[in-house]
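Re: Re: token formats

Sure, here are both.
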Amino acid sequence: MLASVLIFVASCKPREETTVAPVTNSLPAVAPVAAPVVTNAAVAPAKPVITITPEQARNHIGETVIVTGKVFDVHPTQKGDVFINFGGKFPNATFSAVCFQGVIPADQLTALNGKTISVTGPIKEYNGQVEIVLESADQILK
């Protein structure tokens, strides 16, 4: 049996060496792109929104704030605008939240009469009256 194993080993051909062609990429070469540099100067930190009273609103014109106070009067106009008056009834209100022409249904706004609520947004002055214009019901925080 040893002779047959030797004959088998002798009859086996040595493995031929093959060479593998290098892999080529048919895509054009692209230079690496550097990541943009971000500095702290480019990103301003968000200013926290403060909560103020209706009486303090006049001192914060141009700022986005939360005004919290008692609603003294809700006044719908013939045009469909609604004024939510704080700090007194119109024309003696110290601050108003104004909703123009049905952006928020008037019945939702008149239901706020006599309640303490908060409204948020940028404070503006119009004809001597300090106000926040309500463009969404989300600006009324109960």
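Second one below.
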Amino acid sequence: MPFFNWEGGDLPVLKDGFKYYWAVAIPLTLLVLCVWVGSMLLPWRRWMGKKQRGDVEANGGDRMKGE
């Protein structure tokens, strides 16, 4: 289904069905962006949590203030 009507003369170039493209494309783009951000942040927080627990164990359980 073509979205453009190049042979319409003075009529609009975009056909009426073009709005359905945006109705699907924008929510899917936002969904993919949210999944990507979640996949980047969640493992990072999990990794940092393990690293901080490892630092505490390496220091004998003591943490100095200011770290």
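The mean pLDDT is 75. The helical segments are 18-58.
- S.
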